[in-house]
Amino acid sequence: MAKQVGGHGGMDFVMDWRLIDCLRNGLPVDMDVYDAAAWSCITPLSEWSIANKSNSIEVPDFTRGAWETNAPIDLTLTGAGTTQVRNLIKANSKGQLNVH
To answer: What CA–CA distance (Å, rounded) separates 17 from 77?
Structure first.
């Protein structure tokens, strides 16, 4: 089902499902603010690199070294995995999705 409705071979669907499931079950999400900062800095750093004859530039450590001692994220479904997924076939003439 993930391959049918989700991009990138179904991984977009899986990541969206996991985010929703973690939020519904009060669990920490897989990405934190430091991950968001690292993902967000790639474009400006790339622009800087290109403007400077494609010189390499290091991605800043937004955690100030804390990544080395952070507890690993529990990727099991312990306490989670309760979010159900409806199999949506296609929209009818009124634009409503038929649920099966």
So the answer is: 12
